[in-house]
Amino acid sequence: MHARREVLLIAGGPWHDIDHARLELLTLLAQVEHLRVIVRDGWDVAALARCDVLVTYTCDLIPDPSQIEALIAWVEGGGRWLALHGTNSRLVIGEDGKVATPPLPEALFDLLGSQFLAHPVPGRFRVRPEAGHPLTDGIGAFFVEDEHYLQRHAEGNQVLLSSEFEGETPLFETRYWPRARHQTLYLRPRGKGAVLYLTLGHTRGRHDMAPITDAYPFVERGAWVHPAFRALLTRAIRWLDRDPALESPHAS
Questions:
Q1: pLDDT bucket at 249, cuts 50 / 70 / 90
Q2: Among 125, 158, 199, 250, which is least packed, fewest CB within 10 Å?
């Protein structure tokens, strides 16, 4: 029998169907009997201190300096953090409707390993493996419909999946993008712990764009309905739970 392991799930922020993401993640976490989950909609370092595992699905939810210090200490002390989709986003919507992405606090950027800068209109794009790892073994290249995250990346990420983009993102401050690869899934070791970042997972309902509009015309479920994404999430939870089969052969 496994020992009980405490999980902190933080799901909060604008422009997304946070209820949908929270429910999906709780359903997946509940499949591992000994994982017990504390749920918050904002940063709670007191709860984090009691937990072994952190899962975040957020947008434009930036921890303050003391919270960033607590996150760094927690990861360096051996904590494992699964960061999903917009956790690395900081957004300011101008009067003209254009979206600016001011820099994340440097310490947070260094901990997470990336920052969201833009995405084109949600659509179909190809994700491909970059390196062999138990988290992605047997998952070949696949097409998915989601928000295609374009980012700046820190040095030191172990890139497991990536995608390629060239084109325009007219809603964002950074509009023109030369052809380049962007990290879709990566591991970022830090001290005795690590961050696992997966950019897929956009979800939006008809009432998630207020106050810009009260009625969004579509329900968007992005990668949540894709088998490869579900498989990656299931493996990520096993990695959080320190399943030896999901460890890198090079891990200490």
A1: low
A2: 250
pLDDT, tens digit (0-9, with 9 covering 90-100), for 98-129: 999 999 999 999 999 999 999 999 999 999 99
The CATH code of the domain at 5-246 is 3.40.50.880
**Structural tokens at position 44:** 């709670």
Q: How far is CA 196 from CA 95, 124, 157, in A?
A: 35, 23, 9
- Alpha-carbon gap, residue 193 to 209, rounded angstroms: 36
Q: How many CB atoms lie within 10 A of CB 73?
A: 15
